[in-house]
Amino acid sequence: MKDLELKRLSITNWQNIEYLNIEFEKMLILIGESNRGKTSILKALSAIIGSYEIKENDFKNRDRVIEIKIKYFFKEKGFFTLKMTKKIGEKNRYILISHGVEEELTIEEIKSKFFYVKGVVISSKENGVHNALHQMKEIFLLQNKESKIIKELESKLKHIETNILSQSLQRKVFFSFLKKILADIEIYEMDLKNIFYSIFLIFEEPELHLNPQESREMYYLLIKLSKIGVQIVMETHSSYFVGLKQYKSICLLRKVKNNIKVYQHTGKLLNGDEIKNFNMNYWINPDRGEMFFAKKVILVEGQTDKIAISYLAKKLDIYNYNYSIVECGSKSIIPQFIKVLNAYKIPYVAVYDKDNHKWRSETELESSNLKNKNIKKIINKYIGDFIEFENDIEEEIYHEERERKNYKNKPYYTLQKINEDNYLIPKKLEEKIRKIYK
Question: Which of 101, 95, 99 lies closest to 79 in space, CA to CA?
């Protein structure tokens, strides 16, 4: 267990934030549209650890006090809170709150008395990586000047400084540093103990200058770092850094009535076999993380539905690039995706086949009707809806009942049909497609 862990961040009267309260996990992933407070949160964290100097335009209301609070759990002392307040024209005030007792300290006293201010900021600015590596070096120098990891950091810094690297190449240097440390973790174990495990990493847009494959690997490295004790706070616009397995880490920010609001779910969403099925389903198609960035999510059973619905929407000139179609893999998995969308208040529509064909057996009909019922009963009517194809999307596209024997190679023939120049979308199907994209 690491010695110290961030548990909660509270921000008042800061930049575009009136008031915000965020619960921390080992890794916190800030997502949302532009101007929704992501960068403001990172700057608030940087300010309280002394890495950002507060300016007058950081006050949302100049007549009120800025207040930033971090709640920690310290293994030896339990919970305590560090509060920083700032008035225009006055110095920052730091107050340590432990077991209800408040003690005002200077930033110097805090830095000398407590090791928890070891935050490393990797900004998106041109010298962001260079500065972050310097911050890490200073932290390790305090503990052990002969540390192997210091030599590694010095090597990376020299490479950046000697070659005057672009921001893109600096990011790749940091990427290679993390890979080296984590690949040879046993070698650096003694150097890392009580140092790396006590750092929290503030990372702006980790996806910058990385290709999709590197982005996936960087996300894996950050997860690995969080598992060995490094607390990570990142701001991202990339679905490669949002894994459904790490849903507790996701912090979705939205503007509601001109105020920034946080959507998190740190409780348990799935149970038993749901977790196994959901995780297996996710690993088959990891692109599903993009649903957290969508204005609306369209849940479908499979690939045929995904392609056909997109094509028909474009044909009707109602396709919306702000909507994401998420292929769930099967009808029985749709409820698990609905649970996630309900938790984060993301608008959605569940689209599925009723599967009541005349040729189905009584057992098959009972099974499909139970699945249909399970989907309908967990839909939150305030943010979600459902569209039920009479039997399946193929029958609606062909505008006729289909026999069981027609189901061989159905995706190919379905897409071939809607791609015909003279194909007319049946009225009922058109109404459903329009409802999906409303």
Answer: 99
Rounded distance, CA 164 to CA 157, Å? 10
Instruction: Compute the distance between CA of residue 78 and CA of residue 111 in angstroms, rounded to an integer.
Output: 19
> Which residues lie closer than 8 Å to 256 by C-beta, 6 or more apart?
none
Q: Please give the Cα distance from 73 to 17 (Å, whole number).
A: 25
Mean pLDDT of the chain: 85
The verdict on 290 and 315 lying in the same domain is yes
Q: Provide the domain limits for residue 418.
A: 275-436
> Which tens digit of pLDDT belongs to each residue from 55-77?
999 999 999 999 999 998 877 77
Residue 304 placed within a domain: yes
Report the alpha-carbon distance of residue 231 to residue 95 in Å, rounded: 23
The pTM is what? 0.84
Q: Are 342 and 290 in contact (CB under 8 A)?
A: no
pLDDT tens for each residue of 319-358: 999 999 999 888 988 998 999 999 999 999 999 998 887 7
CA distance 297 to 306: 12
Cα 77 from Cα 75, distance rounded (Å) = 6
Side chain identity, residue 278 = F
One-character DSSP codes across 338-354? HHHHHHTT--EEEEEE-
Among 233, 263, 293, residue at a domain's last position: 263
Q: Is the pLDDT of residue 147 over 80?
A: no
Cα distances (angstroms) measured from residue 375 to each of 333, 334, 370: 9, 7, 9
Query: For residue 369, is pLDDT > 50?
Result: yes
What is the spatial distance between Cα 72 and Cα 290, in angstroms, rounded to a whole number?
31
**Total count of domains within the chain:** 2
| DSSP codes of every residue in 99-130 | TTEEEEE-HHHHHHH-STT-EEEE-SSTTHHH
Same domain, 119 and 259: yes
